[in-house]
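Worked problem 6 (solution included).
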Amino acid sequence: MGVPDFSLKGKVALITGGSRGIGRSIALAFANAGADVAVTSRKIESLEKVAEECREFGVRAFPVAAHAGKMNDLDEMVQKVKDEFGRIDILVNNAGTNPVNMPIMNYEERLWDSIMNLNLKGVVFLTKTVANIMKEQGGGNIINISSVEAFMVGDLSCAYDVSKAGVSHFTRTAAAEMALSNIRVNAIAPGATKTALVHAMWEDKKMEDLVTQYIPMHRFADPDEIAGAAVYLASDASSYTTGTCIVVDGGASLALMYHDPF
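Solution. The predicted structure is:
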């Protein structure tokens, strides 16, 4: 086999939630590795900026406004990307939300549905649509962004945790079903990362110290530190890897075995 090949040259990647945070970092990392990139989120203005950054690597970039929790938006968005590039080789299901932390006893159906629609239902049905395109092409690669909270219990974040646990198990199920179609399906489970989703945890020094005392590396991740795992999973370097979830959490999940913080 020789030296592992991390190049994405000649590939087309579609990344949801691509306007900021982990999605933006993955888009730039893919562009740097040679992939043409389609980025999608709800606001076209932010996407245009990311697309321009990607083009600086000499690749094509296509911004598409769409809500990853609305099925009609997803179908239209996929068609636009296919019309633009002619194919989709890599899908990154990154879009996600956790709008509020509250006890389960205070939940309303609308809140539960809004989280599940974006974090889980959108992942399932976008995967379904793109996987059918990949099958016609002879194969492809799907990467789902889960969370370390898929395996841990977060603080008043039941709906988010359950949705991400669903993403992790869906990854394994889809990988088993799609292997014979030459479609690999894997996931990444980030820990505490400096994104807008959890800005309150790292913009306030006291809160940051409270959170990071339970992380062996004593810090939040930068979004760029998640992108490396995505390049590995998207490239031929991981050609025999499917159905797995790479945890990138600074060791936070290891801290569960201790009674006291590090």
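Discussion: The helical segments are 21-32, 44-55, 71-85, 109-137, 158-178, 199-203, 205-212, 224-234.
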